[in-house]
Design goal:
The complex is a heterodimer of chains A (194) and B (391). Chain A is mainly alpha-helical and 194 residues long. Chain A has five helices and two strands. The radius of gyration of chain A is 41 Å and the shape is elongated. Classes of the chains: A mainly alpha (194), B alpha/beta (391).
């Protein structure tokens, strides 16, 4: 009895195609491939077509919309919304303002310097990229020309090869004809000598 | 028994599917019958211009009689007529007018067949869609056998062909799909028929390793062998392959072998080798991982059989019923209907050497079970024996 080995191979980690190597069934493999294509997750926009409400999943309430949160949740959400305009005032009352202001100015200064440096670097990179792009464009044009050249060469070589075969064939036919004529000549010679 | 093989073109340098098919069958059947080939003087299948000398010739030991083509085909005129009959209501006269343009128009060939029908026991006609088969079968229907080499294209639905498929004494099909298609169109179930196809000549020596050394192709590659043409689905193949490369960052290459009438995309991983000799073609096939067959219309696909003969799996276009059916029967190939399926199927084959190996073995078994010359020859002999018994 043939021991059937049911093996599995994996194309992508998330999906598997089951293949019975001892008894390959192409239709079955193709069915699995078709199912796999059909099961591929469409993007979020495809999942929720235009016109239907789409909510980003909440970190605290995964997979739940505000309508699903219940009365307590709704009240909390409402309170947070109402308090939002007063949050700077609350921070001002809690933190030492001067210290906060000084640190912010320092951060801004450092950021400004970094931005200056980055800006000059970007200018340099931009110039280099521009040069590289020009070189690349030239190389691409050159490659295209080379490709066309090699393509035409291969076509011409193919034609020559076919032509060579034809000529060889014709030569063979002519050799046979020549041989035949030789025989005929000898036969005629014999005939006339007699 | 004297049998005439009737074909639109015939010669060593003619490598078109049906013509090569005819030559190989004729050369193999000469062991059993007194074989003669009746054909035209044409070489070029676009214009059918007279090329060979008229009269008797010998090709690989077989006597060949060539007849003149009375007028060359004008491709533009033919295109206009074909467009008209495919897109408009038309009469039988329009279809016959199309057939005259389709050619190769050789009244001399038909006159010879009609005048010398008593000299032959059977006439085997190749390719249903040409002038010689239509008028030849009408002239000697009682002695005719047809090898249609039909593809699922709109031409087969013309009314003149519905009648034609009911006239020969026997039909030798290339595939089960072809038989089903013709029987559905013409309801010719009463006509004796068998699915036979054709064998293939495998060179005694070929080596994938030598091919890789000769052409510095370092990474793995897919191979396409055949005419590089839109009708063969090559433009779709290029599109799918380049998208596959872009999305998967795979280092696989695509090697193309054959003459081209299509601009090949400029990409370092698309390698065009042009025409190769049989030995080099088999070496290229041997060095590849997979044969890709993107054609929409095939009657058999000899290249697919050659791939299976050399234990290579195939990735085929599912829109071609014949290729899909062959893959399912052989269990030696996957098929795709769109880009997603192409990507998944190719990804699966590339990622799984064992699957490729097992499919290759299945292909070889299928080839040996159905397409060796002994099997093909016996099937032809059986068809003729059955016709003889009916007499």
């Amino acid at each position: 009895m043939v021991k059937k080995e049911r093996s599995q191979i994996s194309l992508n980690k998330e999906e598997e195609i089951k293949i019975d190597y001892e008894n390959i069934d192409v239709s079955d493999i193709m069915e699995q491939i078709k199912l796999r294509i059909a099961r591929k997750p469409p993007s979020a926009r495809e999942k929720f077509p235009r016109g239907e409400p789409y909510y980003e999943p909440s970190a605290y309430y995964p997979d739940k919309t505000p309508e699903d949160l219940g009365t307590k949740g709704k009240a909390r959400s409402l309170m947070l919304k109402l308090m939002r305009p007063f949050s700077p005032l609350i921070k001002l009352l809690i933190l030492p303002v001067y210290q906060e202001f000084r640190e912010t100015v320092l951060i801004l200064d450092r950021t400004n310097k970094r931005l200056d440096y980055l800006s000059s670097t970007i200018n340099e990179v931009d110039k280099t990229l521009h040069l590289v792009a020009e070189d690349l464009k030239k190389t691409m044009e050159y490659t295209k020309l080379l490709h066309t050249l090699s393509h035409n060469l291969v076509v011409e070589l193919s034609k020559l090869k076919i032509e060579e075969d034809n000529l060889k064939l014709k030569t063979r036919i002519m050799e046979k004809d020549f041989e035949q004529l030789g025989k005929r000549e000898k036969a005629l010679e014999k005939h006339f000598i007699k | 028994m004297k049998v005439a093989f009737v074909c639109q073109r015939y010669g060593i340098e003619i490598s078109g599917g049906a013509e090569l098919h005819c030559r190989w069958i004729a050369e193999h059947m000469k062991k059993y019958w007194q074989v003669e080939v009746l054909t035209t003087r044409a070489v070029d299948y676009i214009t059918w211009k007279n090329h060979y000398p008229e009269g008797e010739d010998t090709v690989n030991g077989l006597p060949v009689k060539r007849f003149s083509v009375s007028r060359a085909r004008d491709p533009l005129k033919f295109g206009r007529i074909q467009k008209f009959i495919l897109e408009n209501e038309h009469s039988e006269k329009d279809e016959l007018n199309w057939l005259d343009e389709e050619g190769p128009c050789s009244a001399a060939l038909i006159d010879y067949i009609q005048g010398h029908q008593d000299d032959y026991d059977y006439f085997i006609f190749f390719s249903y869609r040409y002038y010689h088969s239509y008028w030849g079968i009408n002239a000697v229907s009682q002695k005719s056998i047809l090898v249609p080499t039909a593809e699922n294209d709109p031409i087969i639905h013309l009314n003149i062909f519905k009648e034609l498929f009911r006239k020969p004494q026997a039909i030798i099909y290339n595939s089960q799909e072809e038989r089903k298609m013709i029987q559905t169109i013409s309801h010719n179930q009463e006509v004796l028929g068998d699915v036979v196809g054709v064998g293939t000549e495998i060179p005694s020596q070929y080596s994938g390793q030598e091919f890789r050394e000769e052409h510095p192709i370092k990474s793995d590659y897919l191979i396409y062998i055949g005419r590089i043409d839109e009708n063969k689905g090559c433009h779709v193949l290029f599109d799918f392959f380049l998208r596959f490369k872009e999305e998967t960052r795979s280092d696989i290459k695509l090697v193309l072998v054959g003459s081209t009438i299509l601009k090949i995309p400029s990409h370092p991983d698309v390698i065009f080798l042009g025409y190769l000799s049989d030995e080099k073609k088999f070496s290229a096939l041997d060095g590849s991982l997979i044969l890709v067959m993107p054609s929409f219309y095939e009657s058999l696909s000899m290249v697919t059989l050659e791939a299976w003969a050399t234990e290579k799996p195939v990735l085929a276009n599912a829109r071609c019923d014949v290729l899909k059916g062959q893959c399912q029967r052989s269990q030696a190939g996957l098929y795709y209907d769109n880009y997603d399926e192409f990507k998944e199927s190719l990804g699966l084959l590339l990622s799984d050497p064992r699957l490729r190996r097992e499919m290759g073995k299945n292909g070889r078994t299928y080839f040996l079970g159905n397409y060796t010359w002994k099997i093909i020859e016996n099937k032809y002999l059986t068809v003729v024996e059955q016709l003889e018994k009916r007499k």
